[in-house]
Amino acid sequence: MIFILILGCNKEDKISKEIVLEVKSLYTNDEKMAFLDEIHLQDQKVRKNLAEVELEFGYDSDEKKGAIQQMIKNDRINLQKIELYLQEYGHPSKDTLGELAAGTPWIVIHHSGNIESRQRNFTYLYNAYINKDLKPGSFSFYLERFHRMKFGNRFTLPNPYKQEQLIDSLIKRLDLSGLTK
Fold it and tell me: pTM score, two decimals?
């Protein structure tokens, strides 16, 4: 399965042997937790750096453009790592690896910036939500951004509504119901 993913990537997104080896060498829960926690840390670090660069150099600065490119590169690598991790081990359990590690796939997929990765990884995130390894608010945020990316507008429901109603409605609107069984 990993081999197919490697072949399916374009040259820019080709998964390195180092990433494959890194993911396949996670044997213990401590190693898995450290791996996921580090990805989460890197994800947040580049975003914090982007905000700091913008404050120091300005919105349209070359420095900010460079920080954005670094964030995109980091997001691409993190997505490769997370997708390989999910294929190899499934979605991390909050009870086994902790809340930070369990939330890492969501944050990386959420930051991936493309519809394809959201579609590809929906079942992992949906099952994590069902198993309470992903908070309903996080899952609905992912679905709402997915909707905005796919249809170019914000999804709304008449008030009042419950979080579960929003999630169910978004799954139907995004035509993902077939992936929930």
Answer: 0.88
